[in-house]
Structures are given as structure tokens and as C-alpha cells.
Automatic annotation (TrEMBL):
D-dopa binds at residues 243, 333. This is D-amino-acid oxidase. It catalyses: a D-alpha-amino acid + O2 + H2O = a 2-oxocarboxylate + H2O2 + NH4(+). InterPro entries: D-amino_acid_oxidase_CS, DAO, FAD-dep_OxRdtase. It is found in: Peroxisome matrix. The lineage of its organism: Eukaryota, Fungi, Dikarya, Ascomycota, Pezizomycotina. Keywords: FAD, Flavoprotein, Oxidoreductase, Peroxisome. One of its GO terms (biological process) is D-amino acid catabolic process. Residues 9-349 form the FAD dependent oxidoreductase domain. Pfam families: DAO.
Length: 360
């Protein structure tokens, strides 16, 4: 059966294609404008940290997706170093004075004293009070994973290729175009999987205006942090954040960040970059051995637009102009940490629509 996966070849689309490709009854073509190796403001996945720090609220579908993603990421860190995923201790610091800010609302579950994932991730425990910084009310520590996106996205492509997936660069104006003649080698597409991320807001046939960007700005440095760190807010602005993570396999350390909803600006804000670096060095002095930001060794600055969908990600079946479609988009800043859970859900919907049962 012909299946067209129509993403920005980001983590949602590639993971869905990978899981579907395990079913030998499916013949899959990934149709995308952007592929791993590209850096474009429309294409969020390469800019991500990326890591596993669940922000989904307890009892939601998003929490289930995150829960179902931890196992596969843990397996990759344990058994597949070539995927660019490694274990890292993670510290989450919370300040009561941040309550109500954009960043604190985004991180609400993550920075709570009793998050739903505390019994899922290894080594979850409170940080002793004597180790807390000024204004920090409490902090939790656990073992998580950090992902080198420059390795992981091509790794997903390679797994797909091993399973016979075909990749094509195509720019679509309408979702039905993914089922057009010539897209699939068999000249027949039975179903389209829509993983278009932020561009679901403009793609014909979808045009989901509830999808908006949440602008994130980062600094990639060569300095080692030794652990991941996050805090519930900053004193620099309602939409600014402070988080730190060191990527696997020499991928450098990501310093972030911001959560500027509705902001499409693709260019780096140099003043924000300075604030990001100052906050990171204050939160994690070991980055520069207690010295200032002039001792940060910068690789590059970056801007990515998280594809946020009001009301949460859309993972559901649909039919558009007679073409069966399964949507999997709008994951905001949770693309990696919900990737397998969402892809499993989308794959089940594909199986139901086509009357098959995938071997996931």
C-alpha cells in the first residue's frame, strides 16, 4: 500500500515514517521541502536542544505521548550510541516568583514539586536545600537524555532507508498534492500522513490557523556544562527562559532561550543572546569555571520557531478532497520528547484507515 509522509522531514515525520516502515505491507515516500542538513526558519527540528523534559500536563494525551517516548529514547541511549542520544543528569529549579509568567506556564508540570513523570525517569529526587541558588524554592534532579539533532535526524533517515523508504524533495501548495501522480513509484497513494509542523498553518487543505510560532533563540557553545539545567523563569522578561544541555557525541552545549509566541522573526537578537549567556553562566558556573561570558566559546547563534497549536498537538484521522489523511503536527517544544508516542498513535490511525496492523 502506498503511503506518502508529507513533513518538513522533522522529528515527527521521520519517526512516523520509521515506525510505519516496519510494516512490510507499506511502501512509503517521504515528501518534504526541507531535509536533515538544511537550516531554515520553517524547519524547527535541527534547532532543538533536544532533550526529555516533559512539560505536558498530567492526565492529557500529550502526557501519554511523552510517557510512551521515554522507553524508546532510553533504549537508544543504552544500546545505539550511533543515534546521538546520551544520558545526562537533569536539574529543574523552581522559583515561586515566576508563577504566571509565559515561561512558568510553559514549564508548569516540569517545575512542579511532584510531576507525573517522577516515577518514570530514573533517579528522581529533590536537590538538597543547601544547593539551591538565590530565590530558588526547590529543585528536582533525575536522569534524562540529551539528543544531538545533527546526528539523530540523519540516523532516522538511515533507518528509514534501510526499510525501503523513498525520500523526495517536493514543495506542496496543497496536502492533496502528496497523493498526486508521480509522487509515489507505484503511482498510487492510499493515504497521506501530514507532519508539516508550523506550515500546517498555510498548507492548502489544512490551513490550521491555531498553529503559531513560539520563537526560540539559542547559543551553541563548546563549553561543557556536565549536566542539563532548567529554571522556571528569569528576571529579564516574561517570555525569556534559561536552560542548558550538552549534546551527545561532541555536539556542544545549547544555551537557551526564549518562548516568544506569535513571533516570526528569523534573525538573531544580539541583546537577547547576551542575556541568554549571562543567565546560563549564572545558573551553571562550571561552564566558564566561574568566569564571565567572554570565556564562552561560541559555535553559532540560532533561532527556531516551535510549531505550537492552540489546544495541543493534532494527531487524528481526516479525509481531504477524497484523500485519507492522518495528521501529526503542532507539538510545540515537545517534538522530540513526544516523538515516539505521537508516531505510535499516528501509525495506529494509519493501520485503522488502511485495514492493516503494523508491527510497531
Amino acid at each position: 500500500m502506498g503511503v506518502a509522509d508529507s513533513p518538513r522531514a522533522g522529528v515527527a515525520g521521520l519517526t512516523t515514517a520509521f515506525l510505519l516502515s516496519k510494516n512490510t505491507r507499506y511502501s512509503i515516500v517521504v515528501v518534504a521541502k526541507h531535509m536533515p542538513g538544511d537550516y531554515d526558519i520553517e524547519y524547527a527540528s535541527p534547532w532543538a536542544g533536544a532533550n526529555y523534559m516533559p512539560v505536558s500536563l498530567r492526565g492529557t494525551a500529550a502526557a501519554d505521548w511523552d510517557r510512551n517516548t521515554w522507553g524508546p529514547l532510553q533504549h537508544l541511549a543504552q544500546h545505539h550510541p550511533e543515534a546521538g542520544v546520551h544520558f545526562q543528569e537533569c536539574e529543574i529549579h523552581s522559583r515561586s516568583k515566576d508563577a504566571g509568567s509565559t515561561t512558568a506556564d510553559w514549564f508548569a508540570e516540569l517545575v512542579s514539586p511532584n510531576p507525573w513523570f517522577k516515577d518514570l525517569v530514573p533517579n528522581f529526587r529533590p536537590l538538597p536545600k543547601e544547593q539551591l541558588g538565590p530565590d530558588v524554592d526547590f529543585a528536582n534532579v533525575f536522569t534524562s537524555v540529551c539528543i544531538n539533532t545533527a546526528i539523530y535526524l540523519p540516523w532516522l533517515v538511515s533507518r528509514c532507508l534501510e526499510n525501503g523508504v523513498v525520500f523526495k524533495r517536493v514543495v506542496l501548495d496543497h496536502i492533496a498534492g502528496a497523493a498526486a501522480p508521480g509522487i509515489h513509484p507505484a503511482s498510487r497513494v492510499d493515504l497521506v500522513v501530514n507532519c508539516t509542523g508550523l506550515m500546517a498553518s498555510t498548507l492548502g487543505g489544512v490551513e490550521d490557523k491555531t498553529v503559531v510560532p513560539a520563537r526560540g533563540q539559542i547559543v551553541l557553545v563548546r563549553n561543557e556544562a556536565g549536566k542539563m539545567m532548567d529554571i522556571s523563569g528569569t528576571d529579564d522578561g516574561d517570555e525569556e527562559a534559561c536552560y542548558i544541555m550538552t549534546r551527545a557525541a561532541g555536539g556542544g552545549t545549547i544555551l537557551g532561550g526564549s518562548y516568544q509566541k506569535g513571533n516570526w522573526e528569523s534573525q538573531v537578537d544580539p541583546n537577547l543572546a547576551v542575556r541568554i549567556m549571562k543567565r546560563a553562566v549564572e545558573l551553571c558556573p562550571q561552564l566558564t569555571d566561574g568566569r564571565g561570558i567572554e570565556h564562552l566559546d561560541v559555535v553559532r547563534h540560532g533561532v527556531g520557531l516551535r510549531p505550537v497549536r492552540e489546544g495541543g498537538a493534532r494527531v487524528e484521522a481526516d479525509r481531504i478532497e477524497g484523500v485519507p489523511v492522518v495528521h501529526n503536527y503542532g507539538h510545540g517544544g515537545a517534538g522530540y520528547q513526544s516523538s515516539y508516542g505521537c508516531a505510535q498513535h499516528a501509525a495506529r490511525l494509519v493501520d485503522e484507515a488502511l485495514g492493516t496492523r503494523a508491527k510497531l
